[in-house]
Amino acid sequence: MKIVVVHSRYRSAAPSGENRVVDQEIAALRALGHDVELFERRSDDIEEWSPVRKATLPAAVVWNGQIRRELRDSLRARRPDVVHIHNTFPLLSASVLYACRDAGVPAVATIHNYKLACASGDFFRDGAVCHDCADGVPIGAMRHGCYRGSRAATAPIALAVTVHRRAWRTMVSAYVCISAAQRDLLRGVGLPAERVFVRHNMIPARPVREVAKRPVVVYAGRLDATKGVPVLMAGWDRYLSELDRPGLELTIAGSGPLEDTVRAWASTRPSVRVAGQLDPDACAAEMAAARAVVLPSAWEETFGLAAVEAMALGVAPLAAAHGSFPELITDGVDGVLFRPGDPAALAAALAQADANNKAFDEYGAQARKTYEQRFNPVDSLARLLDIYEDAVANPA
Q: What is the b/e burial string over 291-308, where b = at least 16 CB atoms within 10 angstroms of the residue's CB?
């Protein structure tokens, strides 16, 4: 099959799970013999733009006519069977939908976040979950300046959502939501239900080696409020204060806006190690030797890569019980769920991991079985190809 993948790549300074997913899918498709071409733009390039060109970026978020022409001409010359659209913000815009229509090529769109309804893409505002714009009408976003705390920065995103609402509803042949929870939260956008598919992100298998497990829990992710880092710190402090002899250590891997805060906090707590940003192999090694991987996300994660990556390694995830996590994890079977946003609930879950080494070994073993049964990359890729076939057979 001839496939063109369309993606606006996030900045390399802020490592993105979405970038990884795109790269892994392309590699897997090519390994099966499919002809895959990548049409992408990189946010890193913005730093090299002139001030005049940077000033045009807000308008390009709403409509990028040059991208429409370039992609349309490329599709007409190449004649792929299908176009797979991932992220369009900020360098591509909804113009890619019109380019696919112009060229007569069916479009498949993986919806990685909530940006079709929410300007910040995470249904999260002022430290709490927010569904004010879940119907796809971003009035609240403009009132609150939800993107980067700025009404001026939010305006082009809100305008793009409004102007291209009909295009997103009518020009896509198949929508891929990465969890049923995400699909349900986006119902207000009005995507045609018969074209919406649920397909979890593909997580490549890693060999499960016999490693000496350590009394460590690992957090691996972006260091910001949406990921629940304040809850993690407060929960850890409560865990330490409530046990006479706490037996766990905490490793924090990642970077982000709260990195300085996390390092300052960790510097006075000998039980906490800040590992910084790790490459995927080093991060996997940290997770594989841990008793659990903790995911305290304050936003309703659309998937949660680290949860399934932990399961693939035979390690139990310990996660906030909202968003996609209850869909991915069976509490008390292959992981542990705790009340979202509650440091006391997180502390209780950590105490459970501290006191029940054997139980967490069993959770980890079952987590690997869950990965093999529900998140097998071969099955995931087969489902993606089925969705492509459906889009080709039933073009919008």
A: bbbbbbbbbbbbbbbbbb
Which strand ranges, in their side-by-side order, compose the sheet holding 2-9?
Answer: 35-42, 2-9, 82-85, 107-111, 174-177, 196-198
Q: How far apart are CA 137 and CA 67, in angstroms?
A: 26
- Indicate where the chain has its CATH 3.40.50.2000 domain(s): 2-204+377-393, 216-374
Query: Three-state DSSP class for 89?
Result: coil
CATH level 3 topology of 2-204+377-393: Rossmann fold (3.40.50)
Tell me which DSSP letter residue 202 carries.
P
What is the C-alpha to C-alpha distance for residues 300 and 328, in angstroms, rounded to an integer? Answer: 13
Euclidean distance between CA atoms 297 and 226, whole angstroms:
6
pLDDT in tens, 46-103: 999 999 999 999 999 999 999 999 999 999 999 999 999 999 999 999 999 999 999 9
Question: Nearest CA to 80 among 60, 50, 109, 100?
Answer: 100
Residue with tokens 């298998």: 205
Sign of CA pseudo-dihedral 313, 277, 23, 187: positive
Distance CA 346, CA 339 (A): 7
Q: Give the pLDDT confidence of 124-161 residue by residue, as tens digits.
A: 999 999 999 998 888 899 999 999 999 999 999 999 99
In one letter, which amino acid is 175?
A: Y
Residue pair 185/115 in contact (Cβ under 8 Å)? The answer is: no
Can you list the alpha helix ranges (DSSP code H) found in the chain?
17-31, 51-55, 57-62, 65-78, 95-103, 139-144, 151-163, 165-170, 180-185, 229-242, 259-266, 280-288, 305-312, 325-328, 343-355, 357-374, 377-393
Contact (CB, 8 A) for 323 and 297: yes
Does residue 329 contact residue 337 with C-beta atoms inside 8 Å?
yes
CATH number of 216-374: 3.40.50.2000
210 beta partners: none
Helix axes 95-103, 65-78, angle to 10 degrees: 30
> CA quadruple 352, 353, 356, 358: dihedral positive or negative?
positive
